[in-house]
Amino acid sequence: MSFNQFYEEFIQFQLRERSGEALRRLQEGHGHAEKMFLEVIWWPAVGKFEFLHAEYPISDFKDGVRYLDFAYMRGTHLVCIEIDGYKAHHTDLNRWQFADQLTRQNHLVLDGWKILRFSYDEIKEKPRRCQQLILQMMGSWFGEGNSGPALTLEEREILRIAAQSYAPLLPKTVSEQLHISRNHAGKLLRRLVQLEKLMPSSGTHRIRSYKLPHKINHS
């Protein structure tokens, strides 16, 4: 399934779980910037939407309700992810509105939330850096990727391609899908074999194709 298919399932599931103002907020508040974050940052880095909630309502310190752009709630960890546009936060706010936002964030921290903030421009212009921050979050707070050398984004993408393919994985396929040279693709594949993330599918002295250790080829 493509990102758009998973994304549609993600949104439809949450729409079914909402009602009233929370439903309206999800329908109207989740827009272009939030979808772009999921498509170019979250999806390439994580590959699933489990534990993630869009426009998540929480009790406000003023006895009202506020909405987080995204809430990632997993185990005992509560992570608030906010997407900030420059204009909205530096032009349209007066001093007291700005102070109010800081107070709201402080109350989130006191309530046990960890907070990650991304600017719209950073998501658009520097997605790799944003992806790396999400991967660091997963490793630091959830222990993912700590049982050995950290995988690069390219290596994680190779494993995703291998998981989605019925045929053995070829260096040519990796080169074409990641837009990298055949030589670089070969180096990445050999490193994944050394890390026991992949294993040879054909060839011994010179590996011609690769597969996941637990996967049966259907060729």
TrEMBL record:
| One family name in Pfam for this protein | DUF559
Specify the DUF559 domain's residue ranges.
68-137
Q: What is this protein called?
A: DUF559 domain-containing protein
Organism annotation: Paenibacillus allorhizoplanae
